[in-house]
């Protein structure tokens, strides 16, 4: 049993945007419902109108476009896992998808829902951040693009405005000589909610000198963050053990952890350092 | 049809249907209302997957989807899998079932059966897509559907088997592997093939050479209720819809401790469709204890149905009955309660301080030991000569251990339906382990005589002790009495966490004296048992803890001191393991710690000291369960063989302490650990069970038992016991359990008593019936003696070789000659409770930089006496191991400072899922217990007893650090690894 609400099922994106605009701010988009339905049942949110965007064709599909991968906001975690384009250009995203909850949830959960819900522990933001992803937001007023790093604001807070839909996520096809990795620490193999998750990406020159680094940290601050000082410390350097250790230390410094049932702030910070070190070591060996 | 109703058309199981639904209906609501009862409710939060159906061929959780979303689409439920007519006509069998259903039955993948429909559908979707899946793919695919009974071992085997059947292969029958174990059997040869592959294989059963082979007992008979559960038949409490039934709902306290100053239900009562709202003002104040135990229940009676004081977040405040679940919820929101918030206390040690908030200050609760300091009970027991034994000790070791509050997390919530029958008797249809106790305990609360109450137990979707408790029955009955209508109440999943029962958290301080020759001469245990808001089971759980925790090594001087303490948290109760498993954690860890500290071989040290055949249990008399116990002597003990077999099967001596084996990459270290354990079989001198067997025209029988099968398979093994005596296949018995109007008394399913106590009652009843059959055969044959007749193959044979079929005997006895009903009842009580024994071995990996522990392999070798059914028995082991691993590794109820539970959901509470499980293996070393039916002892609780200490031992093997508090969360392990102080107790040498 769910609370009463009106469910609208638009056929097109334009129709959906009209419906949202008409009843804003009482209307909320519904995608896979894996966050929203639980919130409704627990009465954390009580919107009068839900606009079902799960089946909108405009939000679906994964394609390549001008050196970018463009993934519809309605892409489910399961689709991400099975997509050849993602496998080729963003295996790090699949690493995150593979340990996302369980098959039943993966089958419905969408990337837009995962990003818009604004959980600091969510699985897809760290890999998307290291891929330099942007999100496409559509409203009656038109489409705007926002770098994911600006889109994520705080706990349950993003730059998504009422009556706006996240229609796609896009990122530049990673350069050659680039490698990325993702790791999550939970109580067991695939905890729904991570104690901590980390993604890194490194591009190296042929001589091993680091040209670009991205380090994203989840569950260590009110939003998924990038560890910029750590990233910069590696630029122009080969990925030596010392350089990696220093970057890992800086990454841990960037955290603003809280203590909760999954782990204390101190633990999270110290383990951040371990994971960043491991992931950088791993990708240093992988870059071709 | 009101404005919110609409009709949708969809295809269900191949047929187009039009359903009237509410906008707020989930697909689960709509399907169950349309009588697709195989679709189960387990949580409503998307965590358990019990509600899984196929939507256009893909598994989805129907509780997370609005019914309207399914319009125009195709829904498949388990009802569609089989051709029911073929299954039931002309004679029940496995033909007509889907190969998955067949395989689930044959491998024993069904225990309570509550998760079965969801597992079947998820597996079907996988096999439709991938006919030849790997084990990892199967586990991954099933990862969304929780099972709390099976440990998933047999479910995975069933899917593999079904895949083979569907591919047209003809897999060999699923059967246990049997072998003889003599003292001189070369173990390496015997076990090599079985164990070194680490397969989740069929269970291995080892028998002593002299053990007699039986016909039905010892066989892996499929469960007698397997077919109906595989079909998703409406067998559970909630699978009926009664005319005019109302929906009850419970309002719970948001405060840890408060007085209700004002409660105004007028708005709720005024809501159209609401038929009753009951608060503490509306029902009489009758004191009781909610634990389902024998008469007289242990004190204190510190509860009333609805009180003016609340003592934990989630405590009962008011109940309503309304025409729909939605209205009932709305009515709850309209009840206005003004609370006077009182100071609360969450920590048991703080609760024992002077000046702590008093949890039970009400004068009408009697029998609290020290009310001011919240001590409900103070227990002291000792045996042996204190001074003489301590004088022998060369070394003294003392250490403290702590355990957390674990929740049973059975997938079927507590659910109950009450109604008046046509004779004005109150019928209570409820998911309970203790129907007879419920009837007796309910009577005074609702002011009806026992004879006016009938308690019916349909199939239960798991209980694990949590349904040995009156949780909903009294409230539901009050609502039926208030409204005159049938009322159904079901807990939400959050209420299961905050308002049902759980495992008692304990703080243990063990002190052991040993000699330089490895002899344990004295053991003392001081125990603080946190019984939280109410005392139910508080006394007996801690007594069992002391008894088992001090009996395993049975030191010549043993002392038990215990305080049972109130705090303002949700109340613990009975949970498989019942105090014993907590105290095993303490004793087994300290024994391992001592061996390590002294440089002794841990096996040798334990072996020197564990209790042996012929030994008397020192504290058995002093520590009964809530009352004085009885003297006990060990008559069967296979522990030595359990350990011997386990060491060989795990290749222990190659791994333990082997630095090469330990080391992994990236700070990973492996370790192996072990523990030994014992449990009981029933409560000596207290537990009584009875059975009735009645013969029918065709030579079949009804077996009526009060014993309560809650998914364990007890109906099946009881049928096997009767069948063995009567010389018939188990399928010739129609088993009925349990209904207070029709089945004889049984104290219920708890205390590991069903096989041992109820089993013996069945055997006795069968012997009486066998005697009657022989007597009647003698009459028919004109013989003046029935002596030396035997029953086998559905016939009775005389010594001279002539025979009659049981059908001939039945027809003659009912219709032709000396007509009478062949029927007998028998009761059984035992003054002994023989312990089953076991050894558990754990291999794991510790990430020393993050503290994350991964359990890789668990082996349990058990002596449960003679194993009546190897498949159900190994299922008990595997399911028990899953719960034990959860207890040790990740499950824990966590509170914030205000006493609010922060993880009242199956997801964040963390029940192990299929793809997270380590390899589980079960080996049985059979013994013959002279007092048990065909030599059987218990098995169901034993697997819980040893995993936590074995894991701690393995973590120590890997890292050199002892972790003395469960669960072993990454942070706890990480901290322990970083603290230089690896020993904080007192060593006196
Ligand atoms: C059992 C369980 C396990 C889980 N495990 C994980 C896990 O391991 N990792 C993890 O990261 N998350 C996990 N989650 C959380 C959840 O599944 C994800 O956040 C999921 O990606 C949300 O997507 P959805 O499509 O279900 O969103 P919904 O629940 O439908 O919506 C979520 C929010 O996003 C908004 N929204 C949806 N689509 C759009 C859009 N196109 N434009 C704008 N706003 C939109 C909605 O209005 C709502 O506020 C779990 C949830 C459950 C129930
Ligand atoms: S009832 Fe739907 S997931 Fe638990
Ligand atoms: S058999 Fe799976 S929950 Fe009981």
How can the largest sheet of chain A be summarized?
A: 5 strands, antiparallel
Output the CATH class name of the domain at 246-342 and 414-490 in chain B: Alpha Beta
Relative strand content of chain A: 25-35%
Indicate the low-confidence ranges of chain A by residue numbers: none
| Largest sheet geometry of chain B | 7 strands, mixed
Strands of chain B, count? 34
Secondary-structure blueprint:
The complex is a heterodimer of chains A (288) and B (989).
Chain A: E1 6-8, H1 13-23, E2 27-30, H2 36-41, E3 49-52, E4 62-65, E5 68-72, H3 77-82, H4 84-89, H5 91-98, H6 103-108, H7 111-116, H8 125-130, E6 134-139, E7 142-147, H9 148-151, E8 152-154, E9 157-158, E10 165-172, E11 178-185, E12 196-204, E13 210-218, E14 225-226, H10 228-234, H11 241-254, H12 265-286
Parallel strand pairs in A: 1-3, 2-3
Antiparallel strand pairs in A: 4-5, 5-10, 6-7, 6-10, 8-9, 11-12, 12-13, 13-14
Chain B: E1 5-12, E2 15-22, H1 27-33, E3 52-55, E4 58-61, E5 74-76, H2 84-88, H3 99-107, H4 116-129, H5 135-141, H6 153-166, E6 177-180, H7 187-196, E7 204-207, H8 226-231, E8 246-252, E9 258-264, H9 266-270, E10 274-278, E11 309-310, E12 316-322, H10 325-334, E13 336-341, H11 348-351, E14 375-383, H12 386-392, E15 395-402, E16 415-420, E17 426-430, H13 435-446, E18 453-456, H14 473-483, E19 487-490, H15 493-499, E20 506-514, E21 520-532, H16 538-551, E22 557-566, H17 580-598, H18 602-609, H19 639-650, H20 652-655, H21 659-662, E23 668-678, E24 688-695, E25 701-705, H22 714-726, E26 733-736, H23 754-781, E27 790-792, E28 795-797, E29 803-805, H24 806-816, E30 823-829, E31 837-847, E32 853-863, H25 870-889, H26 906-909, E33 919-925, H27 947-959, H28 970-978, E34 986-988
One FE2/S2 (inorganic) cluster binds at residues 41-44, 46-51, 61, 63 of chain B.
């Amino acid at each position: 049993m769910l609370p009463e609400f009106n469910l609208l099922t638009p056929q097109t994106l334009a129709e959906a945007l009209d419906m949202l605009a008409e009843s804003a701010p009482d209307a909320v988009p519904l995608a896979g419902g894996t966050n929203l339905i639980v919130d409704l049942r627990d009465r954390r949110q009580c919107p009068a109108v839900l606009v079902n965007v799960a089946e909108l064709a405009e939000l679906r599909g994964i394609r390549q476009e001008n050196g970018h991968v463009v993934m519809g906001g309605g892409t489910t975690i399961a689709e991400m896992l099975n997509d050849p384009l993602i496998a080729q250009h963003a295996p790090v995203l699949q690493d995150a998808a593979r340990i996302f909850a369980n098959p039943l949830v993966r089958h419905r959960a969408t990337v837009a829902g995962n990003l818009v819900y604004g959980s600091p522990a969510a699985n897809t933001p760290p890999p998307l951040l290291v891929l330099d992803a942007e999100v496409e937001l559509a409203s009656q007023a038109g489409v705007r693009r926002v770098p994911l790093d600006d889109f994520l604001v705080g706990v349950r807070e993003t730059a998504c405005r009422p009556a706006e839909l996240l229609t796609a996520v896009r990122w530049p096809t990673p350069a050659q000589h680039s490698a990325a990795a993702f790791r999550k620490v939970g109580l067991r193999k695939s905890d729904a909610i991570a104690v901590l998750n980390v993604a890194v990406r490194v591009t190296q020159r042929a001589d091993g000198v680091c040209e670009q680094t991205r380090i994203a940290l989840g569950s260590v601050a009110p939003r998924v963050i990038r560890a910029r000082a750590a990233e910069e410390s590696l630029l122009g350097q080969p990925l030596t053990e010392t350089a990696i250790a220093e970057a890992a230390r800086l990454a841990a410094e960037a955290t603003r952890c809280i203590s909760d049932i999954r782990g204390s702030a101190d633990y999270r910070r110290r383990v951040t350092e371990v994971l960043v070190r491991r992931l950088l070591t791993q990708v240093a060996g992988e870059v071709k | 049809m009101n404005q919110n109703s609409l009709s949708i058309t969809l295809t269900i199981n191949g047929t187009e249907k039009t359903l009237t639904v509410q906008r707020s209906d989930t697909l689960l609501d709509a399907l169950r209302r349309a009588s697709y009862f195989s679709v189960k409710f387990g949580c409503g939060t998307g965590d358990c997957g019990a509600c899984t159906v196929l939507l256009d061929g893909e598994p989805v959780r129907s509780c997370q989807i609005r019914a309207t979303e399914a319009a125009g689409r195709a829904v498949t439920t388990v009802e569609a899998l089989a051709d029911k007519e073929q299954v039931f006509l002309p004679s029940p069998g496995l033909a007509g079932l889907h190969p998955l259903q067949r395989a689930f039955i044959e491998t024993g993948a069904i225990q309570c059966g509550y998760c079965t429909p969801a597992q079947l559908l998820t597996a079907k979707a996988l096999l439709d897509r991938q006919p030849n899946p790997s084990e990892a793919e199967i586990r991954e695919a099933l990862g969304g559907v929780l099972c709390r009974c099976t440990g998933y071992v047999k479910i995975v085997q069933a899917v593999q088997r079904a895949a083979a059947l569907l591919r047209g292969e003809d897999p060999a029958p699923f059967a246990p592997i049997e072998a003889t174990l003599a003292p001189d059997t070369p173990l390496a040869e015997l076990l090599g093939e079985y164990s070194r592959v680490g397969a989740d294989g069929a269970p291995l059963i080892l028998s002593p050479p002299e053990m007699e082979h039986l016909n039905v007992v010892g066989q892996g008979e499929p469960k007698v209720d397997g077919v109906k559960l595989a079909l998703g038949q409406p067998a559970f409490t909630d699978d009926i819809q009664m005319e005019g039934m109302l929906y009850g709902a419970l309002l719970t306290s948001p405060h840890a401790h408060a007085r209700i100053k004002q409660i105004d239900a007028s708005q709720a009562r005024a809501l159209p469709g609401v038929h009753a709202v009951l608060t503490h003002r509306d029902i009489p104040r009758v004191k009781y204890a909610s634990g389902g135990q024998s008469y007289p229940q242990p004190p204190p009676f510190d509860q009333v149905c609805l009180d003016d004081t609340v003592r934990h977040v989630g405590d009962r405040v008011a109940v309503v009955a309304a025409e729909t679940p939605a209205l009932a919820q709305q009515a709850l929101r309209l009840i206005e309660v003004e609370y006077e918030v009182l100071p609360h206390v969450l920590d048991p040690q703080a609760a024992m301080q002077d000046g702590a908030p008093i949890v039970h200050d009400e004068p009408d609760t009697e029998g609290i030991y020290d009310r001011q300091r919240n001590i409900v009970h103070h227990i002291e027991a000792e045996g042996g000569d204190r001074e003489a034994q301590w004088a022998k000790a060369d070394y003294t070791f003392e250490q403290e251990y702590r355990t957390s509050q674990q929740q049973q997390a059975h997938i079927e919530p507590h659910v109950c339906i009450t109604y008046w029958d046509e004779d004005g008797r109150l019928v209570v249809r409820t998911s309970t382990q203790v129907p007879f106790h419920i009837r007796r305990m309910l009577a005074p609360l609702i002011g009806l005589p026992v004879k006016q109450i009938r308690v019916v137990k349909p199939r239960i979707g798991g209980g694990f002790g949590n349904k040995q408790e009156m949780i909903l029955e009294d409230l539901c009955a009050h609502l039926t009495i208030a409204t005159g209508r049938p009322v159904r109440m079901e807990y939400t999943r959050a209420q299961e966490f905050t308002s049902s029962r759980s495992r008692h958290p304990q703080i243990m301080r063990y002190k052991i004296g040993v000699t330089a020759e490895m002899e344990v001469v004295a053991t003392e245990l001081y125990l603080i048992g946190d019984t939280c808001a109410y005392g139910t089971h508080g006394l007996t759980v801690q007594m069992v803890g002391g008894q088992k925790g001090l009996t395993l090594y049975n030191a010549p001087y043993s002392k038990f001191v215990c305080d049972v303490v109130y705090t303002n948290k949700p109340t613990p109760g009975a949970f498989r393991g019942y105090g014993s498993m907590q105290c095993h954690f303490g004793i087994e860890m300290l024994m391992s710690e001592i061996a390590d500290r002294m440089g002794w071989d841990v096996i040798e040290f334990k072996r020197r000291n564990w209790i042996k055949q012929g030994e008397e249990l020192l504290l058995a008399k002093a520590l009964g369960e809530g009352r004085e116990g009885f003297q006990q002597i060990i008559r069967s003990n296979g522990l030595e063989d359990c350990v011997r077999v386990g060491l060989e099967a795990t290749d222990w001596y190659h791994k333990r302490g082997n630095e090469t084996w330990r080391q992994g990459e990236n700070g990973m270290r492996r370790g192996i650990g072990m523990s030994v354990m014992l449990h009981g079989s029933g409560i000596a001198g207290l537990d009584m069970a009875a059975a009735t067997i009645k013969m029918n025209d065709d030579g079949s029988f009804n077996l009526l038992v009060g014993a309560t099968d809650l998914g364990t398979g007890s109906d099946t093994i009881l049928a096997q016991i009767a069948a063995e005596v009567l010389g018939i296949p188990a399928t010739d018995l129609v088993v009925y359990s349990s209904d207070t109007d029709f089945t004889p008394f049984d104290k219920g399913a708890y205390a590991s008593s069903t096989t041992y106590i109820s089993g013996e009652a069945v055997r006795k009843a069968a012997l009486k019936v066998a005697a009657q059959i022989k007597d009647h055969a003698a009459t028919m044959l004109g013989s003046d003696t029935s002596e030396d007749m035997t029953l086998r193959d559905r016939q009775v044979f005389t010594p001279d070789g002539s025979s009659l079929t049981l059908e001939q005997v039945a027809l003659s006895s009912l219709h032709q000659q000396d007509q009478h009903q062949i029927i007998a009842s028998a009761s059984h009580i035992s003054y002994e409770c023989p312990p089953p024994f076991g050894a558990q071995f754990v291999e794991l990996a510790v990430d020393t930089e993050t503290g994350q522990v991964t359990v890789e392999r668990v082996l349990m070798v058990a002596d449960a006496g003679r194993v009546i059914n190897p498949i159900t028995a190994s299922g008990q082991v595997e399911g028990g191991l899953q719960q034990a691993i959860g207890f040790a590794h990740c499950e824990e109820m966590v509170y914030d400072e205000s006493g609010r539970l922060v993880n009242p959901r199956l997801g964040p509470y963390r029940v192990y899922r299929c793809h997270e499980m380590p390899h589980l293996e079960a080996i049985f070393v059979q013994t013959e217990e002279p007092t048990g039916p065909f030599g059987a002892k218990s098995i169901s609780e034993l697997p819980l007893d040893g995993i936590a200490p074995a894991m701690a031992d393995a973590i120590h093997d890997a890292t050199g650090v002892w972790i003395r508090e469960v669960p072993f969360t990454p942070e706890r392990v990480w901290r322990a690894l970083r603290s230089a102080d690896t020993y904080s107790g007192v060593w006196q040498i």
